[in-house]
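Model: Ready when you are.
Researcher: Fold this.
Model:
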Amino acid sequence: MATTFIILKPDAVERGLIGEITTRFERRGLRFLAFELRQLEASLVQQHYAEHRGKPFYDDLVAFLTRGPVVVGIIEGPAQVVEMVRTMMGATDSAKAAPGTIRGDLAMLVDENLIHGSDSPASAEREIGLFFPEFRPV
């Protein structure tokens, strides 16, 4: 078994989509090991998205992720769980996301696209460590 990390962004929480999105993962057979509603601090978001610092969208991204509550979670699944979750999320640009994906079915804007998911096992490990420093895999 392996783990990955997700954030249900403020637009998902504001639109009442937490249950819809998490149910999709659970129906797939994936399991939440951690699941928490939080108001993120700018410093944590800046650490999380450090690779984007200096890009034109960076300040707006930090403002967006701190504008309201989010859900952060750790998902457990088979060795390819990172890829499974990313496929289920769909393309970052909701206009290009395939029907049947979370973004393809539910997102409306490229910069408010409902969900973040780790892009690699190494990123998942780093992100879990940032958001759940006390987490120890079972």
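Researcher: Now this one.
Model:
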Amino acid sequence: MFTGLVSAVGEIVSVEAGDVHRFAVRSPYAAGGIELGASISHAGACLTVTSVKADGEGAIHTVEVSPETLARTTLGQWCQGSRVNLERSLKMGDELGGHLVTGHVDGIGMVRVVERDGEWTRIGIAMPEALARFIAEKGSIAVDGVSLTVNTASAETFSVMIIPHTATVTTLGALKAGDAVNLEVDLLARYAARLAQFEKAAK
């Protein structure tokens, strides 16, 4: 479980393609603080650490990605030099500063527009039709693993506003029209929609 508060931006240093893709990721995390089998969110996708080694004051860890995950996320587009948002898993007692994020990507969105409004940035994203009922104004959504508040929402698109700090410490500040992003809808919205479905069927 995660909060959607990115704690580092990693860099893909190597890609090993095959039945299982293996990615090596450089991060500022201390190698001694990453255990084998640990869960780390990568651009919103929860992945398991399969190896780790020190790299200066930081570390290089590897993760393995299945064909299913590659097909349902943007991870198949990663190449050497790609930058990815990272978040360590939530521990008991940690502050929940964003919203509950599972690290299970629900779909891929497409950036339609990026507009500057003073120091703020508005990003308009086209969403898969199946996710529209889970996304509402003032609700929460994770975009590439970043917890954000939905600013506006229609049947096909939604928008978010990015503060300067978020643009600086995550990959969102570099987004442009045409970029693909991982989306995870709010867990509470998912259960509310499921409950409404059963209530409707019972009538």
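Researcher: Key takeaway?
Model: The two ends are 35 Å apart (CA to CA).
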